[in-house]
Amino acid sequence: MYVYISQPIPNQQRTYKNRTMVSQGSNSASSYPIKTIVILVQENRSFDHMLGWFKSLNPEIDGVTGSESNPISTSDPNSPMVFFKDNSEYQVFGHPWSSDLPNPPHEPTMNGFAQNAERTEKGMAEAVMKGFKPDAVPVYKELASKFGICDRWFASVPASTQPNRMFVHSATSYGQESNDAIKLIKGFPQKTIFESLDESGFSFGIYYQYPPSTLFFRNLRQMKYLKNFHQFDLHFKKHCEEGKLPNYVVVEQRYFDLLSVPANDDHPSHDVSEGQKFVKEVYEALRSSPQWKEMLLVITYDEHGGFYDHVPTPTTGVPSPDDIVGPEPYHFKFDRLGVRVPTFFVSPWIEPGTVIHRPLGPYPTSEFEHSSIPATVKKIFNLKEFLTKRDAWAATFEGVINRKNPRVDCPVTLPEPVKMRPTEAKETAKLSDFQKELVQMAAVLNGDHKSDMYPHKLVEKMTVAEAAKYVNGAFNKFCDECQRGGIHESEIVELGKQVERPKGRSFIYKFFKCLVCHD
Fold first, then answer.
1. How far apart are CA 222 and CA 489, in angstroms?
2. pLDDT-derived band of residue 449, with 50, 70 and 90 as boundaries?
3. Which of 34, 181, 249, 409 would bridge 38 by S-S if both were Cys, CB 3.0 to 4.6 A apart?
4. Name one Pfam family in it (predicted).
5. Contacts of 90 (CB under 8 A, 6+ apart)
6. Contact, 158 vs 306, CB < 8 A?
């Protein structure tokens, strides 16, 4: 059975004229059966690349048929065409959106993916014009048939990983289009959904496998919030079993691909089967929890990674979050969305095979995008204020809860993925942009940002294995500083260049210490 939903316009009226908005007439948190929302954001895959061929299983999904194509050259009317195929493997290509004209005056034609890939690396046009057969991603095949997906969810900004991940929790990237080493040192200052929840008496937890990327937000470096960070392997399943998951849960993945512990974030060229195993592990832990009947799991991707998608990206009526304009040369106004990405909704309150299409509100131009997450969290938990004009505008997805009673037939386990990548992890590989940013953030946490090596010399010759070791050591040093005491709970934890570690190992050190360290 398949259920197709168009979201109704909410009763509450919302305005986004000011940066901080207060909603009127919000539903109380008790009116929703959901008490815990779990967020998992994977890396760099478009909707058509991951789920386009799912249209063969469910014709209501806005996917692909094989007739879709891109020219090698958009300026040559006789250019060879590359058609979309279904033989994608683990994938070797990934490149963020780029354009010589970031604010085009017309609706995007979606015909430049092959050209962009070919310009980046010869022969890569075919790689970005491929998608996975449903059987190649069995975990997603099961989730799509047993729960729900959204086939019109866009990245918040046509840019790389980091800006889009910031929109997930703060509905803005604070003017960031890419890496900004100066802002990275200070930490991004915008208010996040974490603080909104805390102010209203709700709990949150971040379960990380490497130093958490959420520490890019300056306010989360406050001493009082460090207790909200939990090492995934040590605490996630335990908290699920004990029914101790907080109201808002963020699950972070392994971003560095090592022989001993492969990356499971789906970033090209990481093995997608590892990402499937990770989603399976998260789902099965949640499914076994006594909190299961009060949960909603949202799985999405930060951006498209250069892979083809046929749905034009919205360019009309998208509000700038905070009127911050991007730097030269584009002076981007943050008034358009990025490429469509895969999004799943998983809960016993969702009918099998649910598909959410275009929303009907709260405004005529509203869309599902990453800011829909804080917007929906605000609505379900009856929080006081919106974070920016963007989450005030974004569509909310509480309508995916489309049952009067929770289901009792949800699968206890998901299919076992089969390894896709024929080769092993390449630990000597150069770092991706996001991996460089994680290293630079780690340098801020342990005080190395005052070194002459920061920011670029630190990462320019670093390998994946070296980076993984560095970020773990940096985070351990940061935790050592936390355990020394004498820091006020509202103070931002900062380290100088020279910080001596205490000899002892207190509970807080063990609490934060990353389990995985590559020596």
1. 7
2. confident
3. 249
4. Phosphoesterase
5. 269, 270, 271, 272, 273, 420, 421
6. no
On whether residue 366 sits in a domain, the answer given is: yes
* CATH code at position 236: 3.40.720.10
Q: Is the pLDDT of residue 461 over 60?
A: yes
Q: How many CB atoms lie within 10 A of CB 426?
A: 14
Phi, psi dihedral angles at 467 (to 5 degrees) = -65, -45
Residues whose CB falls within 8 Å of the CB of residue 355, separated by 6 or more in sequence, listed in order: 2, 3, 4, 5, 58, 60, 61, 148, 149, 150, 151
Q: What is the pTM of this model?
A: 0.89
Closest CA to 482 of 280, 215, 238, 272: 215
Q: Residue 105 pLDDT more than 60?
A: no
Q: Number of structural domains, the chain? A: 1
519, burial (CB in 10 Å: exposed 0-12, middle 13-18, buried 19+): exposed
**Model confidence over 333-364: pLDDT tens digits?**
999 999 999 999 999 999 999 999 999 889 99
Cα–Cα distance for residue pair 215/162, rounded to 1 Å: 12
**Tell me: the pLDDT tens digits for 356-371?**
999 988 999 999 999 9
Question: Which domain covers residue 208, as residue numbers?
Answer: 36-64+131-259+270-400
Query: Quick one: pLDDT at residue 179?
Result: 67
